[in-house]
Specification:
Largest sheet: 5 strands, antiparallel
Oligomer: single chain
Distance between the termini: 26 Å
Number of strands: 23
Radius of gyration: 20 Å
Structural class: mainly beta
Amino acid sequence: MNQLQRALKMNPLRLLKKIACFEEIYTIAYRRRNGQTLLDSELLRFDRIPYDDTFWYADPILVTYRGQEYLLMESFDMRTQLGSIACSRFDEAGKLSQPKVILQEPYHMSFPMVFYWKEELYMIPETCGNHSLNLYRCQGDIEKWTLAASFPVAEELVDTVVTACRDDRVELLCSAVHETHKRKFKWQKLQIIREGEAFRLEEDKAFNTGEGYDFDHRMAGSLITEHGTPILPTQESTDVDYGVNLYLNDFSGKDVTRLPVLKKVTVDNILLPDVQQKEQIGVHSYALSENYEVVDMRYFRFSPRNRMRKILNKGRNLLCMR
């Protein structure tokens, strides 16, 4: 679907805002747990990473490493239009440090799925722009990572989630993007098998070929456990929008294609500082630990200067192409 078709399907008020110098901002919102979570509350107040004219932050993943809790995320550079992996640390007051880029490639990266495997910390970020699935290993410091293996993949795979770690393999669930409709997805099962110091990627062909595309088959965070129940966050998209609502699903059953929904989270369940709820567009990723709860949000911000700058840049690019 091209931009014109998307605009024609858009809510008229939403389209008017986009024309009238409002821009869509991605942000990460976080809060220290106080006995409540979005699973059991109708409205919670979050802090958020401050807006930056240069960077957007999205795809939050929580991890505890050597006794310290960190937030890993996508840091999207609006100048280069590429994402990298950044890291923030929670201080004693529960506030986040300024995000720092810790992993960067010549292609887009996002959704830094981190996990422990045989007492070592690994990461599988989204690298669909490179048509690959990459496995990185932490080198004793949360800011230092090396590439352990890179596997070429035919489909555009996004938001890989680790569902189980065995002695010799890691089981994965990914979202494959529809070839022409970028807001439709289907689930794919893969596993990384370790053979000595080498790694091999294997797919579940029976499962993968039987899956169909839909608007709500995209991962939205790592597998978490709350009250003894494994929970898989997923997100719902539409013809017009990516990541409108969030679903927290019971992952304890054997059939992953029919997950019972424990809670549907919408923008009405979340309060952001200095952002009116009517300006919030969508919620599309989720992370939960013993101490923190994190979501990423999209909202409208009135920004005539940025709007004019984008128009001028497009005009400049058109002139350069002549």
